[in-house]
Amino acid sequence: MSSGGFLRVKTPKDYSSIINYLFLSVRPDWRDSKSLIGWYNPLKSNQQYEKTTFLEFILKAKKDFEKNGKNATPYFIILDEMNLAHVEYYFADFLSVLESGRDERGFTRESIRLHSIDGLDDPPKEVKLPPNLYIIGTVNVDETTYTFSPKVLDRAFTIEFHEVLLEEYPPADKSGLPDPETIRKIKEDFTKHGKFLGYAKDEINEAVKSLKEKDYWNTLVNLNKVLEPYDLHFGYRVVDEIAMFFRKAEESWEKGIIEFESEDDIFDLAILMKILPKFHGNRKKLEKPLKEVLKTCLGNSSVSIEDFNERNVIEWLENWDSKKDEFRFKHTAKKVLRMLRQLYEIGFTSFS
User: Fold this and answer.
1) Taking Cα atoms as reference points, which of 186, 208, 181, 348 lies closest to residue 280?
2) 2-168 maps to which CATH number?
3) If you ran DSSP here, which 8-state letter would residue 149 be given?
4) What pLDDT was estimated at residue 301?
5) Which secondary structure element, helix H or strand E, spans residue 3, and what is its range?
6) Residue 264 to residues 163, 181, 227, Cα–Cα distance (Å)
């Protein structure tokens, strides 16, 4: 899931002749999964199933993976303006299936049920989601949209596009594309599938064990402990995904696909994407837990949350360029400061 914008980059023909992305605009009248996966039409005499482009695209990705295995092409579905309708309504089947985990081949353990008609083979009665399928949603938050429930946020990485760097606009590279070698590395990386989600449990356990060997594990445990009294603590799924994100981000860094300032930078982004999006409410509910997160960002255990007040929150924000080095986890700290400022100004805040 992304917030505030969407960028689509088309791979040059030199690297792939396969149409491996599907762009769909979400409609406000989507009340169930029929708009995505279609429906059986009993009014047709020839046992016809009304297939959608979305379903055909999934079946195409599945067929590619069954044929080519780890060398299959990654397929991307973009649901534009995902929160114009209730995600929990039209995407419910997918949320449940993604929760089921993956089998040894990489497919989801549970299936999306399409129909129960004997003798109707196109499409099949059910379909398991392949590991080369990625679903991305774009979000703009205003009075015409719906907020996301914790159920949805727990199953997604939330990326906010907030910074606007006019000094660097327009970009020097008019194509907007990375260099060919980087494109090759990205394609190779995604071809291994499940870069963020959908790993086998043994691989997740290994990633968690690796994280436990670093001091970030203690930071994660302590953060969960201080958030528990406010009912904002997180579960095993979030920990698993933070551990896998950390491992895969490090691998991408080593391959030169993306640059980070340090391992702190990776952990910082994981906290920002997986923990903060669930913060939503008034000052009485959120001021103390946000201050606990800010204390974690400082990395200084001797600081008390009582040391944070409206004056120094505003000062940090207004002088961010000179103050940011006071924080160990800068991305999360800046977001928390913005949320605290909103609490002080209007008494309410959210991640969006």
Assistant:
1) 348
2) 3.40.50
3) P
4) 67
5) strand 2-3
6) 20, 27, 21
